[in-house]
Amino acid sequence: MVWARGQASTQECPKSLVTPESIALIERFSAWKFGGGAQASELEARNAEAFLTLERELRAEQTNGQRDFEK
Questions:
Q1: Among 32, 39, 48, 61, which residue carries the largest CB count within 10 Å?
Q2: Which of 70, 59, 68, 71 is CA-nearest to residue 7?
Q3: CA nearest neighbour of 53 among 7, 20, 14
């Protein structure tokens, strides 16, 4: 294992797994959160799935007392 945090882990360098598309999704998620987080049903399916995953992971980190993504 090269990297682990919470329940996530990888056997490859995580930087090599970051793509321009994944960065764009994270930026859209941040804008979505800043704008009040509209209903997932109002989003495109691809964005809704990514945002719900990111929201679940954000809440898990906050519950576990780890860093606050929104700061």
A1: 32
A2: 59
A3: 7
